[in-house]
Write a structure and sequence with these properties.
Elements: H1 2-8, H2 12-65, E1 75-76, E2 81-85, E3 98-103, E4 112-125, E5 128-142
Antiparallel strand pairs: 1-2, 2-4, 3-4, 4-5
Length: 149
Amino acid sequence: MEQNSIRNEKGVALIVALIILLVLTLIGFSSINTTTFEANISGNERVGIDAFYASEAGNQEGLDQLPALSPISRKPLGEDSYYWSGGPEDKKAPAPLASYGMHRKPGYEVGWVFKRYQVNATGESFAAMKETETQVSYGPFRAGTDHNN
């Protein structure tokens, strides 16, 4: 009786080997898909970071030109990266910087005031766009002087 069961189990090793080979193949395909997906995520993150830094360059240019409020035209920054003042809708006609008037700051006497400005900039790299906003106080100026206007 034992000889019959031994003869019937000769093909089991082949079936087990084929099942193991199938499992290893599925693991290989899954690894390839995961690697491709992670590479795409990494590329998108890099493009987004490039757009953010382009927007920061526009913000810095806006801060450098204060107290002038003139718009920052669309300027190239490296390969396929640009920045301008305003939002994405202002790409063709950049928006001017904003002035929010005078304000006082704690720690300064009543006779001192500051000017408040806001710089909005958008950066674009390939198809990604990022917007940044910076608010700054400029001063101090003596209250009632020509710098208040």
